[in-house]
TrEMBL record:
Domain of life: Bacteria
GO CC, one annotated term: plasma membrane
Record keywords: Antiport, Cell membrane, Ion transport, Membrane, Transmembrane, Transmembrane helix, Transport
Protein name: Multidrug-efflux transporter
Cell location: Cell membrane
Organism field: Roseivirga echinicomitans
Topology within the bilayer: Multi-pass membrane protein
Alphabetized GO MF terms: antiporter activity; xenobiotic transmembrane transporter activity
Length: 458
């Protein structure tokens, strides 16, 4: 068995956090790039096309979230076993979580494809964009198993501290996607123009390539993880442990994604123009969310390995550094978004000044609270890394369902703000939940949980 390339349980903490965070953020930026590239090319088709694509984004996010909590379970267990120097269990956890993940994502993909029209009817999609939205969404649903498989691949590698390989794969497939998008959207030569659906076809192709490369790397043993077909059998006690660890994360991420879906329903009440503005604005904000998630995932890995090594002091210092970096860096990004809100919006929505104005308002109202998002996500990363996924879940649900959704509904429906009330719910739900999360973290209860021991058998 190979030994880790670099130790995350000794040496300068800030350096270790940075070495993890930068490639993870790079990966997340590239993944966001898929959505931005789609929005860039589809935006040339007009506001209706943008709305048709935008409507599927939170739904797709929700469905991936149902399964992706188990990817967090895999990453957390792998990180803690790696910190405890138990690499036989690292491989065993990788096999079990991959097996479980593929089965779950397959079931979700089939069900989502069948009920795609009913989903769109339920959220009130207008007839003018219904057919395009349904065809685009169904094509995306076909790729759920590829998408989630690659998410699991990245999570397992992140658990052992290998973050560069996913960066290279994402970079290559994003570049390919940039050229495939116009090819399938507008057609060329013998290739038919698929319109809006062409963006989904392009994404489907690149997702398949990504997971194929990921599985090749895992089975070849390029990293500290090496899989074998013969070793794939169900370990029910470990699966039960992974389920208990991953299920709260699934609920947490699903609650976040479902909140986005409910927000889309609220936005859709104000018509296609507001929906298009929300689609562009939410995609730009998702860029910031991805930044905070990247830092959060780096924090999870570093905290997890140090908890597994019984280095609670290093885990706590990691959390502190991550929180400070998250707050300051995302505050700077928010200021940039505030200043350049109009050109950023126009880059992804051509020709309609009214819709652009709505999108600019959305960005300006939301952007100055980004730092609080970075603070909260860093602490959430600490909780996950230490195995406190239930606490992470509860804090997330409070932020979305107790604060954001009720505020958005009340301000948009019962005040003169109208759809601007939806925009104001975002900064409110960034600041208040961050302060609540910080207060819980300060109690120190998260330090008492450890999933493995340095002398764990296996």
């Amino acid at each position: 068995m190979k030994s880790p390339r670099k130790s995350l349980t000794e040496g300068p903490i800030l350096k270790a956090l940075t070495m993890l965070a930068l490639p993870i953020i790079g990966v997340n930026l590239l993944q966001t790039g898929y959505q931005l590239v789609d929005a860039f090319w589809v935006g040339r088709l007009g506001a209706n096309a943008v709305a048709a694509v935008s409507i599927s984004f939170p739904i797709n996010f929700l469905l991936i979230s149902i399964s992706s909590g188990f990817a967090f379970a895999g990453a957390i267990l792998v990180a803690q076993y790696a910190g405890a120097k138990n690499f036989k269990m690292v491989n065993h956890v990788a096999r079990q979580t991959l097996l479980m993940a593929f089965l779950i994502s397959l079931v979700v993909s089939i069900i989502a494809y069948i009920f795609s029209p009913q989903i769109l009817y339920a959220i009130g999609v207008e007839e003018i964009i219904f057919d395009d939205a349904n065809l685009f969404q169904r094509t995306i649903f076909i790729g759920l198993i590829f998408n989630f498989g690659f998410i699991m691949f990245q999570s397992l590698l992140r658990g052992i501290g290998e973050v560069k390989i996913p960066l290279y794969i994402n970079g290559a497939t994003l570049l390919l996607n940039f050229f495939l998008d116009p090819l399938f959207i507008y057609g060329w030569g013998p290739i038919e123009a698929y319109g809006v659906t062409g963006a989904a076809v392009s994404t489907l192709v690149t997702q398949f390539i990504s997971i194929a490369l990921g599985m090749y790397i895992l089975f070849k043993g390029t990293t500290e993880i090496k899989l074998s077909i013969k070793a794939f059998s169900f370990d029910w006690p470990l699966l039960n442990k992974a389920f208990k660890l991953g299920f709260p994360s699934s609920i947490e991420i699903s609650a976040r994604a479902l909140g986005l879906t409910i927000m889309t329903v609220l936005v859709a009440r104000f018509g296609t123009e507001v929906l298009a503005a929300y689609g562009v604005g939410s995609r730009l904000i998702s860029f910031v969310v991805i930044l905070s998630l990247g830092l959060s995932k780096a924090c999870t890995t570093l905290v997890g390995q140090n908890m597994g090594a019984q280095r609670i002091d290093r885990a706590e210092k990691t959390s502190y550094y991550s929180s400070v970096i998250g707050f300051i860096s995302l505050s700077v990004v928010g200021l940039i978004f505030f200043i350049f809100a109009e050109p950023l919006t126009r880059a992804f929505l051509a020709g309609d000044d009214n819709v652009v104005g709505m999108g600019v308002d959305f960005l300006k109202i939301t952007s100055l609270s980004f730092g609080f998002m970075g603070l909260q996500m860093s602490i959430i990363g600490t909780l996950r890394g230490s195995g406190n996924t239930v606490s992470s879940m509860v804090l997330t649900i409070i932020g979305i369902w107790v604060i954001q959704f009720p505020v958005a509904w009340y301000l948009s429906s019962h005040t003169s703000l109208g759809y601007d009330g939806l925009w104001w719910s975002f900064p409110i739900s960034n600041v208040i939940p961050a302060l609540i999360t910080l207060g819980w973290y300060k109690t120190g209860r998260w330090k008492k949980k450890n999933l493995v021991h340095s002398n764990a058998e296996g």
